[in-house]
Amino acid sequence: MDQRKARDGQAIEEIGTYDPMVRDKSKRVTLKMDRVEYWMSVGAQPSERVATLIRKVKENDWGDIKAPPPMQAPQVKAAPAAEEAPAEEAAAE
């Protein structure tokens, strides 16, 4: 994006995409690295987040993919014996 244009304005050139909904982290980002290198050589400055994505693509460093923790059955709390006693007394009367 040209910094002189509106935030949602027309891009000079699209050199990649980012889709956070893709499960495989390494496939979330697609970049044309030759075009990234070109634009960096002529003075383009990536934002902090884009610079991080470029670094990750170059180093192929996507971190460990962790499986979600296993689901556990809900724990049911047992009613204390003190609460059951008045109900039994009321039923006996």
Question: What is shown here, in short?
Answer:
By secondary structure, this protein is mainly α.
Describe the protein.
With 93 residues, this protein is mainly alpha-helical. Helix content is 35%, strand content 6%. It is built from three helices and two strands, in the order ββααα. The chain has helices at 33-41, 48-59, 81-92; strands at 16-18, 29-31. It has a two-stranded antiparallel ribbon with strand order 1-2. The protein is elongated, with a radius of gyration of 28 Å. The mean pLDDT is 75.
Using the alpha-carbon principal axes, give the shape.
Answer: elongated
CA-atom Rg in angstroms: 28 Å
Q: Classify the secondary structure makeup into a structural class.
A: mainly alpha
The number of helical elements comes to 3
Could you describe the largest sheet, including whether it forms a barrel?
Answer: 2 strands, antiparallel
List keywords for this structure.
6% strand, 2 strands, mainly alpha, 93 residues, two-stranded antiparallel sheet, elongated
Write the layout of secondary structure elements.
Elements (H helix, E strand, L loop, with lengths): L15 E3 L10 E3 L1 H9 L6 H12 L21 H12 L1
